[in-house]
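Backbone-to-sequence.
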């Protein structure tokens, strides 16, 4: 998951409006947060519950792995500037990298 950073309204306004393509990606992300992030929520509140199913059930383990294989898409690109807190240190570069990541996923 991408680091979440609080941004001032002024800084956000400087980025301009998202493109139609970016709006569509934001909508997909919203749907994922609403319908596809149950494991994250479960693990943040009761991690052992999921652990029992994974440890005690070969079918549960297989389902977990299969789901991750089919939905786990990754994007990686090295940039010249920025560090551990890239969003705070280089916000313009960070924003472009996040947008590029979603564009790459969209092409798949």
């Amino acid at each position: 998951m991408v680091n979440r950073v609080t941004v001032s309204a002024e800084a956000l306004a400087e980025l301009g409006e998202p493109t139609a393509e970016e709006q569509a990606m934001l909508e997909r992300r919203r749907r994922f947060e609403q319908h596809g992030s149950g494991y994250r929520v479960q693990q943040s509140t009761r991690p052992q519950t999921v652990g029992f199913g994974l440890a005690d059930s070969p079918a549960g383990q297989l389902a977990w792995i299969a789901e991750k294989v089919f939905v786990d898409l990754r994007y990686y690109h090295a940039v010249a500037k920025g560090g551990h807190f890239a969003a705070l240190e280089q916000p313009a570069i960070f924003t472009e990298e996040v947008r590029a990541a979603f564009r790459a996923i969209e092409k798949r």
